[in-house]
Amino acid sequence: xxxxxxxxIKMLRKKFFxxxxxxxxxxxxxxxxxxxxxxxxxxxQDEMRQMIQWVKVDKASDAFEISNxxxxxxxxxxxxxxxxxxxxxxxxxxxxxxxxxxxMIILRKSKxxxxxxxxxxxxxALLDIMNKTLKSIMIKRLSDITETHLMLLNTQMRARCxxxxxxxxxxxxxxxxxxxxxxxxxxxxxxxxxxxxxxxxVLHIKLLHTLRMRRTLNYIVxxxxxxxxxxxxxxxxxxxxxxxxxxxxxxxxxxLISSILFLxxxxxLIEKYKALEIKIEILNFVNDINILIYDRFTxxxxxTLSKAHDVCMT
Length: 314
Hints:
Blueprint: H1 5-16, H2 45-54, H3 68-73, H4 75-91, E1 101-108, E2 121-126, H5 129-148, E3 156-157, H6 165-180, E4 187-194, H7 204-213, H8 218-228, E5 232-237, E6 240-241, E7 245-246, H9 256-275, E8 280-285, E9 288-295, H10 298-313
Parallel strand pairs: 1-5, 3-8
Antiparallel strand pairs: 1-2, 4-9, 5-6, 5-7, 8-9
Helix pairs in contact: 2-4, 2-5, 7-8, 7-9
């Protein structure tokens, strides 16, 4: 029986900040290709104003009780200060440690019979408001570059401009109808995989390598490296707050930047599937991978599934 505050916090930290599992990195090459197009790394005042005005004013304040509305009201006076600060972060490839301090409010899901199980708890993350603003700007830049230079596959969805849930459903329906329209009568099978706690198990070195290999601009890769490391968090639970502690988790699933970074992290796996000389279509919705397999016989589909599993495990 877990009774003390310390024991509960230990259980919750294990749930929300589980460490990255061991991943084979022997195939990571030291060589990579950088995007050669010209792209201004200096943040502009209009760019920052747009991001600050875009955020919702009724969101919860950050851990220092600074609200989005307060930032919007002070925008005219703070513009030059913030643009200088953010440009320094980008130029020096540095995301301030102060920005990476998070307070998490732990909530119990209602009407549960057993509150010992860590799965019935969820959280609200109070992020530093400067962190949210700079992060929003970098997300917008990464998204724009991704779409302009086709860095991700068309079958990878979410966290991308003009890509929504309906886009994924339409693509899936079109894939099924394309198989049905073939002269040969195929059996269709779809295997849906959800990668459990995917974002907590993203290995930094693998993610950064993938960003480089997909020709992401160098200043974005370097800023991302700084953004991901040296994070601290405190938990508020039962009206008590524990001390700030280093967290092992890499990126949280609830943040928009996590979605687009995970699409990059997962892109090489999707390409391996598409390279197989088998009848298979892939639809990747962040950490959900849908494998559509079609063949004339059920036995052939089972063999294809076995090949797909072998690719996933390598």
